[in-house]
Amino acid sequence: MSAWTDHVAKWRDCTACPLCRQRSNIVLARGQVPCDVLFCGEAPGASEDALSLPFVGPAGHLLDQIVDRALPPTVRYALTNLVACYPAEAKARGDNEPEYSEIVACRPRLMEFVALAKPKLIVCVGSLAWNYVEHDAYGRVRGANVIQIVHPAAVLRMPLAQKQMAVQKAIVILRNAVDSMLQ
Ligand code: URA
To answer: How far is the CA of 42 from the centre of ligand 1 (A)?
Structure first.
């Protein structure tokens, strides 16, 4: 069995936090493993829960466009989230973020995935991922650089003029970080 298959087998029935009762499918990761760049978002949404893949809804489509414009095709990347299960009850309350206790419960799964993916660059998608990953020193522990870009779901809520600027800024931040990584 590959390390990825082992990872899936280990976590697919995870019951470490109450989110396990809210998911239809666990959402571990997508992309290439190992990778050069690992994108870490917050939590799966309804589309991700349905397909069992991160960033496949509207925010994911925008993130794909940003990544396509910023990363050379030779750079391998993967995507995951702070938590692997759809926080359906929080979303129903209008609260978009997973609880801190849920993020902490999912930490061993995320740490294992970072160890498997061996990224040189970790891109935190949104401030929640940044606050958590940066303070938890994933990057320093694994020898990866850690940066933050705007969350594409926040971009989708912006007025059109701001949207274009926010996308452009994310592309520039990513390109600069990837250029430094490749040097
Ligand atoms: N938002 C996230 O943070 N992660 C996803 O997988 C989808 C939307």
So the answer is: 6
